[in-house]
Amino acid sequence: MAKPVLYSYWRSSCSWRVRIALNLKEIPYDIKAVSLIKGGGEQHCNEYREVNPMEQVPSLCIDGHTLIESLSIMHYLEETRPQRPLMPQDCMKRAKVREICEVISSGIQPLQNLIVLIYVGEEKKKEWAQHWIMRGFRAVEKLLSASAGKYCVGDEITLADCCLVPQVFNARRFHVDLRPFPIILRIDRELENHPAFRAAHPSAQPDCPPEVAK
Ligand SMILES: O=C(O)/C=C\C(=O)CC(=O)CC(=O)O
User: Fold this and answer.
1) How many angstroms separate the CA atoms of 37 and 59, rounded?
2) Ligand 1 pocket mutation, candidates 11, 14, 54, criterion most atoms within 8 A of CB
3) How many angstroms separate the alpha carbon of residue 115 from the centre of ligand 1?
4) Which of 33, 106, 113, 136 is the most exposed place for a label (fewest CB within 10 A)?
5) 176, 112 in Cβ contact below 8 A?
6) DSSP H helical segments within the chain, as ranges?
7) CA distance 29 to 77
8) What separation in Å is there between the alpha carbon of 151 and the centre of ligand 1?
């Protein structure tokens, strides 16, 4: 089987989630960088629209197919590559993992992504992004107060952690005050030096601008 190819952008939190999952599962993959900003965004070109009709990253070519949507990709990896499980065994804990993934991937990230911020406009975009991230993080913090052990759900790393860490990076990028979210901060700190998370970090990506990578 050919090595999987991930269409990715260094600073895209959705690409980053999938990179973490691939790294944790030790699945070798190649990256095809798609610049979301060059020339108005390479994701909108005809060639890439054939790969991903949503004109977004990530997309993953794997097992002879192309998959889009980060959570759907991560669940496929979990189902087909059971090594280093990223979902708990227990059904209620699985539901808790999905809950946190949903809040982040549907309730926060889409509201502060590039296409929405362009639409909101330069003047309002920071306040807008902060509002939706804080609203979502209040919910995540509350959920974590019941589910967290060392990580988001219990003491094993799950897909919820793969979603949380990149969203914390985005929160910092928009200067959100994270002090009201001590559990989120603790889990982020716990994971920042994990090799799979470090290798997936924007600053470690081949398309990261050299002045940022330093
Ligand atoms: O470098 C840029 O400014 C462009 C795009 C992004 O950050 C990615 C997003 O749209 C946000 C996200 O993935 O959450």
Assistant:
1) 17
2) 11
3) 9
4) 106
5) no
6) 13-24, 46-51, 70-80, 91-107, 114-120, 125-147, 159-173, 182-192, 195-200, 210-213
7) 12
8) 25
Per the document, the length of the chain is: 214
| Pocket lining for ligand 1, CB < 6 angstroms | 11-14, 36-37, 109, 113-114, 170
Q: pLDDT per position in the chain (214 positions), as tens?
A: 799 999 999 999 999 999 999 999 999 999 999 999 999 999 999 999 999 999 999 999 999 999 999 999 999 999 999 999 999 999 999 999 999 999 999 999 999 999 999 999 999 999 999 999 999 999 999 999 999 999 999 999 999 999 999 999 999 999 999 999 999 999 999 999 999 999 999 999 999 999 988 6
Question: Which value does ipTM take for this structure?
Answer: 0.90
Ligand 1 atom with the smallest distance to the CA of 166 is: 14
Euclidean distance between CA atoms 129 and 146, whole angstroms: 26
* Distance of alpha carbon 77 from alpha carbon 25, whole angstroms: 9
**Distance from C-alpha of 21 to C-alpha of 19, rounded to nearest angstrom:** 5
What is the atom index within ligand 1 of the atom nearest the CA of 117? 10
C-alpha–C-alpha distance, residues 34 and 65, integer Å = 19
Sign of the CA dihedral running 103, 99, 200, 34: negative
Q: What is the DSSP letter of 151?
A: S
Rounded distance, CA 214 to CA 195, Å?
A: 18
